[in-house]
Amino acid sequence: MSNVYVFDHPLIQHKTAMIRQQETSVKDFRELVKEISMLMGYEATRKLPLKEVKITTPICETKVNMLDGEDIAIVPILRAGLGMVDGMLALVPNAKVGHIGLYRDPDTHKPVEYYCKLPNDIDKREIFVVDPMLATGGSASAAIDFIKARGGKKIIFMCLIAAPEGIEVLQKAHPDVDIFIAAKDEKLNENAYIVPGLGDAGDRLYGTK
Fold first, then answer.
1. Catalytic-role residue among 86, 123, 178, 200
2. What is the pLDDT of residues 29-79, one digit of tens each?
3. Catalytic entry in 20, 45, 104, 178
């Protein structure tokens, strides 16, 4: 099954607590999501492959380790996932960015695809799928289905808040995908919202509610 990593870093926990607060402004919410994503990305990229290269310092020639090609793709699930992209790009600015558009049917709570655009060489890249919320797990599972159908293999999923139900669904659907989470919450309510959660991440990012 997937490895699930729940962060206990004080900065991640502090900033996650701040985005939960109802009074947090759109501006602050947006900045905090970026900051948390960058902190999480630092750890999530720990296993990226390295290669030894020869360089010249002002003193002498030496051998150092550098990323092996920087073949990375960041794939946000629209629209809320866009809020996590800049934090990741701050770490890996040469990464390519794909986009997957899904919405949750209000009656069935199942994901419906409306857009999917990925780098042509997605099969050769380390892929980071990002979405602030992992609620039912349906959207995340479907997004990763689309990526795998187009050749993607090495995939990591990153989110800020996750419900146990969503984690279980994603693990069963994609046992090969590691899951990185800032905070694991209690449950889903009758409307499939995470409790205690933070509300609708997309609305809070873009001020649409």
1. 200
2. 999 999 999 999 999 998 888 899 999 999 999 999 988 765 899 999 998
3. 104
Q: Which domain holds residue 72?
A: 4-206
Q: Which pair of tokens denotes residue 117?
A: 């655009």
DSSP state of 57: -
Please tell me the total count of domains within the chain: 1
As beta bridge partners, residue 154 has 126
Per-residue pLDDT tens digits for 69-90: 658 999 999 989 999 999 999 9
Instruction: Residue 95: give its domain's CATH number.
Output: 3.40.50.2020
Say if CB 132 and CB 161 are below 8 A apart. Answer: yes
What are the angstrom distances between the C-alpha of 118 and each of 40, 48, 110?
A: 23, 20, 22
Q: Is 108 a catalytic residue?
A: yes
pTM of the model: 0.91
Is 203 catalytic? The answer is yes
Known catalytic residue at 104 = yes
Is 16 catalytic? The answer is no
